[in-house]
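Here comes a specimen:
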Amino acid sequence: MNLDDLEWQSRGLGGYPPVLVDLLVEQGHIELLVRAASKGAWSCASAAARELCKMAEYERALGVLEPFVELGWKPACRAAADVELQAGRVQQALDGFRPDDVGSASEHVCRDFAELLVKAGRVDEAITVLIPHLDRTWMLSVLVKLTEGQNRDKRVLELVAPKAERARSARGEERWNLDASNAQDLQAQVLERAGRVDEAVRILRADIAAGRFLVQNTLIAYAELLQRNGRMDELRELGVGEHAHVGLPYYAKALEDRGRADEAESVLRRFVAADEWDRYRWPLIELLARQGRMDEAVEVGRPTFDHHDACLLESVIHLLAEAGRFDDALAILDERDAEYIDEHASWFHTTRIGLLGEAGRYEEALAYAGMLPTDLYGLTSSTAWILEQSGRVEEALGLLRADAEAEAWEAAALLVRHGRADEAIEGMPPIADLRAASRWG
């Protein structure tokens, strides 16, 4: 185990991905997680430490993390500090993770240390740690998130307000790359949670009316603010005005939630008919689907199915599948022409196999898979899933193991699902080998 291997695991979820780790956790295989951690699997070590803490086995959790901490792996140092905190050793937790020089530490380290301070009840210190980094959009968001419910809204507003003013003036000064472009949204969010909803609405409404904002997220934040607080007049103004492309879905949903679905449908259809970019079809499709009018929903989406942009085919297929209408989804898929299939070969074929399987048409799915090129991306995984669903577990396992392109965790996950977790972990290659075989190494 070395830092490069750990970076690879963290960067690409390599080795033991969440789907496998979550299966082990769900089935209570903590000892297997510990065993995998001893082989250098960071995701297993992290999960094992969390689960051990739930059983108050703090020293053992620290023991699982120790080899990673000794390497200087920052996520492990942070996890160890969390364990110390849960064990009631607050000062030890903070001292163990405190940067040597907070002023020169990276933003990520400062974020993690601030989170730890908040958990320890030292909110003002956490704010102080974050202050040097508040010109960054994501760090400003961290400040707002960490201080929620901490009775520090007045102080947070003092820090956010100057950033919001800069964002308001940036467009007029053509400073399009301003980092803290979300400051107005965050200012409104803090005002709202402080009980100053009218002020939050008034400020964002004025900014949007005057065009004093940089990004579409500000429009989204305003729409969500209005929707949460039942501000129907302002929501209608946003929904049918200049910024309808953002506001209309929120206005329509608010109408529907108030028992006015007919009005919502009417306004959406009006905009669909007048819009050449198909921006309003999906909210209408969702509305119709919620009312059980799936055939109408499909017809609204159909004009986009052959588009290169704003194509709603995949979304409609997913909607039909969620409703259990697999045969209808297959029928729409099979309407695609040869050119479309060539352009979207992997998605088309694996989706078709999956829909056949969901419909219980296993033999048909396997016959179809057998006609496809063996190097088609995703084919092995899709075929193995069909075999597993039809009870042919050993065949599925053999297929995954025989394909050099298949990820080792796929066979392991299959084994875990079928009560063979020990075999799954025992058969996983060393982390270095997994990295060497990975296309993301």
In short: The two ends are 15 Å apart (CA to CA). The mean pLDDT is 95. Residues 230-335 form a domain with the Serine Threonine Protein Phosphatase 5, Tetratricopeptide repeat fold (CATH 1.25.40). The CA atoms of residues 232 and 436 lie 57 Å apart.
